[in-house]
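Session log. Operator J.P. requested a structure for one protein chain; no other inputs attached. Running the standard single-chain path with token output.
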Amino acid sequence: MNATESAVKRMEDWAADDSHGYDQQYRWGEYGDFDCSSAVISAWELAGVPVKSSGATYTGNMRGVFLRCGFKDVTRDVELDSGSGLLRGDVLLNYENHCALYCGNGREVEASINELGGITGGQPGDQTGREFLVRSYRNYPWDCVLRYGGEGGTTSARPGPSYEYSVKLGLLKEGMEDAQVKTVQMLLAGMGYEPGQADGIMGPLTAEAVKAFQRAAGLLDDGEVGGDTWGRLLKG
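Structure written below.
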């Protein structure tokens, strides 16, 4: 069984087992429960793709970490409203609020909400049959779709560059104003972080977004964009 099938099958098994419900306080399976992001992250980690080990902790940092672990952003290849183009195992991600796994045939699997209609305070396990469930696909709305490509993946091949450029990248610190800061802001925004307006100014919001990215990437979270941070940003 490959990693994609293993991750989806585990999510489906959790959804079919009433000992697994929804909770945001004890969200890593301590008592059997998960929330939406910890379920998806844990399923892939247990399938051998080290997204949790690499720093994925919630919807806001999943995209960047998953991309570094062999996933591709295939959002432009999918019709989000209908689900056309989705493949079994695709990660459906809303950066702020929710995520799920597409499991094929117009269905998705997800941890959803506890029996109280909230996110904490319920009893362990699925008390309603809908805390952790397989349901019909819907556009939550999703901000992006991520597809694992680390095992002879299913993403369509695109031609690489026919030539390369060499550029010098500066050390960027809070308070600086430079065109390279705008590049950093756009890269961070594309990964789901919130650097503020892409104005080329290394303000407090941008510095905090850099720190969040650095923590997710396992780097020193000093808010400065040096060689290591540039390297991880440009890898996507």
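Operator note: Confidence is low (pLDDT under 50) at residues 152-165.
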